[in-house]
């Protein structure tokens, strides 16, 4: 006990999946009576780390001490017994049961072998009163708001474990008032001496609730800092990093190289309530528009609007001076738009299809299923792109799931290039691919826009955007807060724009 | 106040009461203990099996093997007692052990091989039916002093109705079933599984033992139902009770249990059985209607109930959304 001042002390934690390191010797320590925010972009390793704490995964390397004792929880139940409880964002409690049943599932008070419902309700009321919640515990959980459900989940987790509480994006679906309700409970628990780990991607909330932050990036520890006296700028630069500093803006085209005159593709006042606030966006041929912002700032939502996956409820789109409606991806494709989604595995590739079939997919969709591409056409198409994009191995008939991430990404790019789009939207085109393929994809983006295609690139790596984009639109709290062009496109400016606190709107 | 959870049950109960009143207005004789006694006896075997089906559906599963297991049990008991001269109690016990093990095995396959219940119990359905044919393809009559005694045993209602041993067995199964569902940890786990298996697992519900327990219970009750059926018909026949699992599912759903699991009451299934029995009785009283009208009315009711359940879910979601806006 004396050796470890911390409640939870993790050292040198390592974890790999299929040979790819998700966590690489990460240290983490949590004190009693502390709210500790765990931050990082997608794929930084936050979830992996807390899943190791909560017994969902077992670590490959490293030690975890809880209250000075070496622990290695093998499953969720074991972690609970040790004192580590978890509250997840969504999958959590059972909506079809009552509040009391949820609180006491698996440990109902019994009399003569039968569940004593009255006693269970009494205890449930007593338990929730501690959290200032005076509700009918015999009503179904589904009849309460998400905030109440979240507090019930916290009450259950604390009642079961009692030392460490892990919260994975507990506020993602709450409004401002509800967030305050949950935070009040967390502050109370902190003051009672509980150690709390919270994952969130809302920086405002980090500053509102956390005492300390630990930032992870690409499975590595960036640092742990006290939140007081940590400027936003510094926190953001910790999260986004500067790993690509060596990439210079050599391909940077100045505005003069772009076609003169009005932009052929114009979005004005375009937005959707609860998704992205209305924005204006003009896109010229040969232009790369970067979209920057933290996770949850509305990056992907913007892409969904631009490609017609989500329907806008305000604003207009005009293509070549004619007003059009983007009510579906099909409509967007017919206007010459293309979209490579972020979730390559789930939304992009069809794993069991061959490389050639995957490439042919969008072109086939565009010309209609009634006119199938012949296998010779497909082979020719695949051959062309395998050569021009250098997809390896150069085997058009191999199922795409056997290719590396970078090559899969190239095949998806090829899918859209085959349709000869005028505007291609790339959501995190370099996520999860190795550094060599990374540079190649960036090079390809440069080449594409030199050929006159317009590109919108969404990326959480700022240096990547400064390397390739002519203009960068910065998003924060689901609105477009800044547009940087030409020489303004620097990592510092982007981070400044992200860090500038936005006035919370009363929406 | 009715929680929206119990609304389907309340609707079922209301439909039964209204339907019964309408029947009585047309045929006053239907308001007699005789009719009620017969209704309970005629549907006893179906009711017993439907209790097992209630647990299965509450957990989000399905058991298609019920009808075949009933047929198997009845042939098994009939051959053991009728042809081999074994004491009925021994035959009953053996049949229950076999059917319970059969159910556990299906539960274990569903859980550990992660095969959908529909597929596993479909295979179980063919297997049990085949095993029944293997024992005998003939209708095997059964006669034993003890069986005659059970068949002859009844309580007399005022008004001449009879509460037979089989009806009593069914009522006992319903009461015990309601207790297991509502007042035991096993029951709570069944509801939890039906709500969301992943959440239930994260909350520490022992998913494996619970799943096996659910199908074991369904197997046991199918066996018990087979015994009741044997007593009811005084014979065992491998071609009997084809499609009884579907009648059981209908009773469960009409009784207000959500087919997706997680919501419902054992008492609702009882009313579901009563409604099916009432329709049959009405057809008998009318005398001119084809017995297929039973199926048609049940089909219409099933549709109505599924629509009602959708409506309730839709309504409560909308109320939730409104509630959030106000707050």
Layout of secondary structure:
The complex is a heterodimer of chains A (about 500) and B (about 325).
Chain A: E1 8-17, E2 20-30, E3 34-39, H1 46-53, E4 61-66, E5 69-70, H2 76-82, E6 84-87, H3 99-104, E7 110-111, E8 114-115, H4 117-129, H5 146-160, E9 164-168, H6 176-191, E10 195-199, H7 203-209, E11 212-217, E12 220-226, H8 232-240, E13 265-272, E14 276-283, E15 288-292, H9 299-306, E16 314-319, E17 322-324, H10 329-334, E18 337-340, H11 344-348, H12 355-367, H13 375-389, H14 405-417, E19 423-427, H15 435-450, E20 454-458, H16 462-468, E21 471-476, E22 479-485, H17 491-499
Parallel strand pairs in A: 3-10, 3-11, 6-9, 9-10, 15-20, 15-21, 18-19, 19-20
Antiparallel strand pairs in A: 1-2, 1-4, 4-5, 7-8, 11-12, 13-14, 13-16, 16-17, 21-22
Helix pairs in contact in A: 5-6, 8-17, 12-13, 12-14
Chain B: H1 7-26, H2 33-42, H3 44-58, H4 66-83, H5 88-112, H6 117-135, E1 140-141, H7 145-152, E2 154-156, E3 162-164, H8 165-183, H9 185-195, H10 197-202, H11 207-233, E4 235-236, H12 244-254, H13 266-286, H14 292-326
Antiparallel strand pairs in B: 1-4, 2-3
Helix pairs in contact in B: 1-13, 2-8, 2-13, 3-8, 3-9, 3-11, 3-12, 3-13, 4-5, 4-6, 4-11, 5-6, 5-11, 8-9, 9-11, 12-13, 13-14
